[in-house]
Amino acid sequence: MSEMPKCPQCGSGFTYEDVTMFVCPECAHEWSKEAPESGIDRRVVRDANGNELRDGDSVTVIKDLKVKGSSSVVKVGTKVKNIRLVDGDHDIDCKIDGIGAMGLKSEFVKKA
């Protein structure tokens, strides 16, 4: 029986195989079998202060942001919990109380 790799995110030894992916049941991290475990090819997203952001982090908005197509504004100091990093111009997907689902640029937030 082959040895399963430990989770690169939390270090758990309880990983399991799911078709072409490895899955960690403790932190729900998934990674490809073909991907290097070192994480060298991983894209790094940084906040306005240069801190590395990860999925599930909480961030604070550092500038008033107008919501496109609406008269709403995301005010300075708004705390956003449980962000998700995505590829594209707006690298953060999140839900903001009172506004809803939205995409943010990492240059307008700081890690909370």
From TrEMBL:
One Pfam family in the UniProt entry: Zn_Ribbon_YjdM
Domain Protein YjdM C-terminal, chain residue ranges per copy: 45-112
Record domain Protein YjdM N-terminal: where: 3-32
NCBIfam families xref list: phnA (TIGR00686)
Record-stated family: Belongs to the YjdM family.
Protein name in UniProt: Alkylphosphonate utilization operon protein PhnA
Source organism per UniProt: Sulfurisoma sediminicola
